């Protein structure tokens, strides 16, 4: 069976575009990540080599790896103009809004994990908005899937400003310039994006403001045709002008960036959001927008085999998932197992089951529920939960463990059980992720999302911006009494988990992935490939992956679990996993997740990788 990624593959029709690597220097278009005896970065286990459809991109001064080549290039342009990693990711996110609108928007939400090299401190930024105050929590759940009632307050643009204020140098007008140009003048529409617009045509056509942009003349745009979003270009230009006018009026950089923030959250753009929401029957109002602020916080963290792993805190569930998964498998000698040994994959599958059960039991907006974070991250809790993992057979999807018993604060609280009810399936998410390092050694990973593909499917008035559908089932719990049930002002959970790994205080790895429910699973497998298998970054990205799917959902103990495995896994392994009791469903060979990451070795040399499962590109200088 060929291991070459075709143009389109799917995990539930997931994007997997096969592209070549990219760097500012001339590099070969295809490489083999060698792992034989002569290779200095040889993996300790597994087969002799992993075929790679991207080259590893050197970043001696810095660079960006992102979900689209134009975004990676825009971010790297900022670095070459003297900007920081923060400047790079803001510029790249703005371009992603233009070139990958089904997965990214200023009207979306997300997380960033940031290493400030001078202080050595890792910080997390949550740019996630809450449910509108007018939300009816007992309303029709189907209305939360798409349309004007599905959205939460847009947090992404506030996150861009927060990153620029704390860690950036360049003016917002410079950061938005590439995105404005691509939106105003157009860019060749990637064939995969054209495919997604075609598949979403029926729903996009329900909303005239969306159809005007995505269905010009009533038809989806042709692959590789010039695609424009002039309304979005005007919105971005107005935000840049708000900053420029403040600077001309004598404001310093911080106050000028605040002027752009205010233009979005209290000024003309906010007013258009609120007007259009009210006109179309939505709940979002100007007061919701005025109240929003992004939130800086400490990341969740664990130590895995001597490495410090930092990931997003609540209201992301993935940080908790990733850390608990690592804690669970730390009790197994994975490095001693060949990568094609079914036991290696079995341990990972079972760890994902246990961690998801625990996190889905407790995780919610900390302003509304007391989540036993300390307990979930406890090594003692992981040791107790590891007892559920049988080396010989697949376990049932368990009930969440008693993490509160390992959480000192939680011991002082009483927690009420909730009754499981209904069989509601959740809708997956569509997201994008990017990572950057700069010449000073600062590093940032960002994962941003509109929720499900195309979010609400609704372009908000004349702004050109799609909004997130952050209230959809999956981000919110479908069960009354669950701590993550939707409520006015509550921030629904995201799967975003941008991650930074330090080795004795020095940057080792910065990475992230899109994929909704699969994000934590993808990042877990990737990190194990780096740490336990010793793979170079591109090989670790391209190695076959699997993802667990739950019917009806991961909130339900006893849910039926299917292991969706990329069909590049050896047939003998699939047969053995099936014999162990796993239900395995083969999907496309490059179908799950899309890791973009940068790996540093002890000498400080930095190499970037990008995932061929989507349009990932790395650009270094």
Automatic annotation (TrEMBL):
Stated name of the protein: Gamma-glutamyltransferase family protein
| Keyword 4Fe-4S applies | no
Classification via Gene3D superfamilies: 1.10.246.130, 3.60.20.40
Q: Where are the transmembrane segments?
A: none
Q: Where is the signal peptide?
A: none
Q: What does the record give under GO molecular function?
A: transferase activity
Keyword entries, A-Z: Transferase
Instruction: Look up keyword Acyltransferase and say if it applies.
Output: no
Per the UniProt record, the source organism is Sphingobium yanoikuyae
Name the source's superkingdom.
Bacteria
The record's annotation in InterPro entries points to: GGT-like_enzyme (IPR052896), GGT_lsub (IPR043138), GGT_ssub_C (IPR043137), Ntn_hydrolases_N (IPR029055), TAT_signal (IPR006311)
């Amino acid at each position: 069976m060929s291991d070459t990624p075709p143009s389109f593959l799917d995990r539930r029709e997931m994007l997997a575009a096969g592209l070549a690597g990219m760097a500012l220097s001339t590099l070969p278009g295809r490489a083999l990540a060698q792992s034989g005896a002569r290779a200095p970065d040889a993996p300790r286990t597994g087969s002799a080599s992993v075929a790679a459809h991207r080259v590893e991109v050197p970043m001696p001064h810095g660079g960006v790896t992102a979900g689209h080549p134009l975004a990676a290039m825009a971010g790297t342009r900022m670095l070459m103009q003297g900007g920081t990693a923060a400047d790079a990711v803001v510029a790249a996110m703005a371009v992603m809004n233009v070139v990958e609108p089904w997965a990214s928007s200023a009207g979306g939400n997300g997380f960033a994990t940031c290493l400030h090299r001078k202080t050595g401190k890792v910080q997390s930024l949550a740019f996630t908005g809450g449910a509108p105050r007018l939300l009816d929590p007992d309303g029709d759940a189907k209305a939360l899937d798409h349309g004007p009632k599905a959205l939460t307050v847009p947090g992404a643009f506030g996150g861009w400003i927060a990153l620029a204020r704390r860690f950036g140098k360049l003016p917002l007008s410079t950061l938005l310039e590439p995105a404005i140009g691509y939106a105003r003048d157009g860019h060749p529409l990637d064939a995969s994006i054209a495919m997604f617009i075609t598949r979403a045509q029926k729903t996009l056509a329900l909303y005239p403001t969306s159809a005007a942009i995505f269905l010009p003349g009533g038809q989806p745009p042709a692959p590789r045709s010039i695609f424009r979003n002039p309304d979005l270009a005007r919105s971005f230009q107005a935000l840049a002008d708000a900053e420029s006018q403040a600077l001309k009026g004598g404001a310093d950089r911080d106050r000028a960036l605040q002027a752009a923030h205010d233009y979005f959250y209290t000024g003309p753009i906010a007013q258009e959001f609120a007007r259009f929401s009210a006109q179309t029957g939505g709940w979002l109002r100007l007061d919701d927008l005025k109240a929003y602020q992004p939130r800086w916080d400490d990341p969740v963290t664990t130590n895995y085999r001597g490495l410090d792993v930092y990931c997003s805190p609540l209201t992301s569930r993935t940080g908790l998932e990733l850390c608990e998964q690592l804690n669970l498998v730390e009790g197994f000698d994975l490095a001693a197992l060949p990568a094609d040994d079914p036991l290696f994959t079995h341990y990972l599958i079972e760890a994902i089951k246990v961690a998801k059960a625990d996190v889905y039991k407790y995780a919610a907006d900390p302003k509304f529920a007391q989540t036993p974070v300390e307990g979930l991250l406890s090594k003692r809790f992981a040791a107790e939960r590891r007892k559920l993992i049988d080396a010989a057979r697949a376990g049932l999807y368990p009930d969440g463990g008693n993490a509160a018993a390992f959480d000192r604060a939680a011991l002082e609280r009483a927690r009420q059980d909730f009754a499981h009810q209904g069989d509601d399936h959740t809708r997956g998410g569509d997201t994008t992720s990017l990572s950057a390092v700069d010449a000073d050694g600062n590093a940032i990973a960002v994962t941003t999302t509109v929720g499900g593909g195309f979010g609400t499917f609704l372009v908000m008035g004349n702004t050109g911006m799609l909004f997130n559908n952050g209230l959809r089932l999956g981000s919110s719990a479908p069960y009354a009494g669950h701590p993550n049930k939707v409520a006015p002002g509550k921030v629904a959970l995201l799967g975003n988990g941008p991650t930074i790994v330090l080795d004795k205080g020095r940057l080792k790895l910065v990475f992230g992935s899109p994929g909704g429910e699969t994000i934590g699973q993808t990042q877990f497998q990737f990190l194990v490939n780096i740490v336990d298998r010793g793979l170079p970054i591109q090989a670790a990205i391209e190695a076959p992956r699997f993802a667990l799917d739950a019917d009806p959902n991961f909130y339900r103990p006893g849910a039926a679990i299917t292991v969706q495995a990329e069909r590049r896994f050896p047939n003998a392994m699939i047969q053995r996993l099936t014999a162990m009791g796993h239900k395995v469903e083969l999907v496309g060979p490059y179908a799950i997740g899309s890791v973009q990451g940068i790996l540093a070795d002890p000498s400080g040399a930095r190499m970037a990788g990008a995932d061929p499962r989507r349009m990932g590109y790395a650009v270094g200088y």
